[in-house]
Amino acid sequence: MKIEGKHALVTGGAAGIGLEITRALIAAGASVLVVGRDRAKLDAIRNATARVETFAADLADARERERLLAHISAASPPLDILVNNAGTMQYFALTGPDAQDRIDRELALDLHAPIHLAIALLPRFLERPEAAIVNVTTGLVYAPFGNTPGYSAAKGGLHAFTRSLRWQTRNTRLQVVDLLPPAVATSLTARYDGPKISPDKVAAALLDGLRTGREEVRPGHTKALYAMSRIAPGFIFRALNKQADKVPLD
Ligand SMILES: NC(=O)c1ccc[n+]([C@@H]2O[C@H](COP(=O)([O-])OP(=O)(O)OC[C@H]3O[C@@H](n4cnc5c(N)ncnc54)[C@H](OP(=O)(O)O)[C@@H]3O)[C@@H](O)[C@H]2O)c1
């Protein structure tokens, strides 16, 4: 795909990995609609960057997602790229009194929101000369953390949904990309003290994947994690969970 001149929607595009994806798309000549809740962060990216528009919405709420979709329908230019990046990762015990509520909230943002946006935008994307849907999952789909049950369920589900979407659109011009970052130095991993890469490296890998037509983009340690999960799945699952067990539960 040629990035220059494309119009992208990046959810959670004003912080962390999403911010670097926004910057990389802009540097490559695209325009970006950035969605998030924090208006101060949205204003900061809009004021600092040409070709950026913003829209404040809580994507965990289906009505807010409908409001965003109405805004997209009314606006121009038409979208060519959707980056489903907004997400949260919570460490909690399944025996806690609020475990079900926490799972529901996490599934709403990390699973239902990206699926909702992808399905709603799909008909329009299929009419574009070139288009891409990028779902940001995680290298942990190969070895999920036991102490982040909502995240593990959501990302595993989104990884599988992404494969379904790719299969059903295989004879179209739509590129369906799964971006599977390793641990990245953002606020999401503040309490995890394993090795982390910088978010700009993840964004650079995604841009490269979009340009070269990759289906799964595995930056940094995710490549090794993928290989290990095939060779010694039990070993890598236990090793990663020993590291993750050091993070206190909420
Ligand atoms: N960091 C990692 O190690 C890592 C590894 C693998 C995958 N990932 C994935 O990468 C994605 C980005 O994570 P990150 O590390 O960049 O996290 P982050 O720094 O915490 O950023 C999360 C982004 O999501 C937005 N967001 C959170 N809740 C939202 C909501 N309810 N509605 C709309 N936007 C919301 C935030 O914006 P507002 O606060 O303004 O809403 C923020 O822009 C996530 O899907 C995450 O699972 C991260």
Automatic annotation (TrEMBL):
Pfam families: adh_short (PF00106). SUPFAM superfamilies: NAD(P)-binding Rossmann-fold domains (SSF51735). Transmembrane segments: none annotated. This is SDR family NAD(P)-dependent oxidoreductase. Residues 6-234 form the Ketoreductase domain. It comes from Lichenibacterium minor. The keyword Oxidoreductase applies. One of its GO terms (cellular component) is membrane. Belongs to the short-chain dehydrogenases/reductases (SDR) family. GO terms for molecular function: oxidoreductase activity. InterPro entries: KR_dom, NAD(P)-bd_dom_sf, SDR_fam. It comes from the Bacteria. Keywords: Oxidoreductase.
